[in-house]
Write a structure and sequence with these properties.
Radius of gyration: 39 Å
Number of domains: 3
CATH superfamily of the largest domain: Band 7 domain
CATH architecture of the largest domain: 2-Layer Sandwich
Number of strands: 10
Number of helices: 7
CATH class of the largest domain: Alpha Beta
CATH topology of the largest domain: Tetrahydropterin Synthase, Chain A
Distance between the termini: 97 Å
Largest sheet: 4 strands, antiparallel
Helix content: 40-55%
Shape: rod-shaped
Order of helices and strands: EHHEEEEEEEEHHHEHH
Length: about 290
Amino acid sequence: MSEKSAKVLNGDMMLVVGIVLTLLTAGAFFVSGNNEDGVLAFMSIVLMLASIFVYSGLFIVNPNDAKVMVLLGSYAGTIRNFGFFWANPFYVKRKFSLRARNLSGEKLKVNDNLGNPIEIAAVIVWKVEDTFKAAFEVDDFEHYVVVQSEAAVRHLAQSYPYDSFEDEGLEQKMTLRSGADQVNKLLEEELLARLSRAGVKIIEARLSHLAYAPEIAEAMLRRQQATAVVAARTKIVHGAVSMVEMALKQLSDKKLVDLDEERRAAMVSNLLVVLCSESAASPVINTGTLYQ
């Protein structure tokens, strides 16, 4: 089963009916008291019970609220429209808020796909979409949202590595840190699948905290720094080799100088030192020749 609309009447009209019945009850009591007429007295009691029945069925639904109607253990429907209504007084009415809600998850300590302990937390925006499922498919839909959200965040953290390192061959794989948009999308999809049983709609889900656990944070930071240094050095060396190759080619093409293999090797060595050095190179004037 799923949510359906309950049949209700306009509350203003039924309020008028209740007022009319109250006036008729008062008139019947007054006349029966003066004439001591048993029939009128009985009618006045019936009218009084009818007016109580009418008043008991009046209720209000506020904007962005809904009320689930249950009659003798049977689901009668849901009222989503706001306003003043009347329904069978024997309906058991359960109120549900249809407003968007925020769930700020606690920091969870889990192991990522590589077994590294990390801390992760998420912020989830959700609301009730199907009041029947929220009322009858799960025991406590709010607690269900909290528990299933935590399970979804844990599963996501265990499915992907926190970060990629070239020495592990993961530089092309999605990670929790680099694939933020895709990770958030995957989290939304998993939450939607888990919470659909409770009639809950996920509006937005995003990671609010992501970090290595304190016991390995310093070591992983040093590893990240070392990886960055190696990557930077690799690019510097690649660029330096390209520049040396270009210089030797232009010297050869323009025939500015004729270099034998030993002088070529010396020139390559000097250029690489200048281009790859972290500090500025100090020029040295050679007053002799390369061989003396």
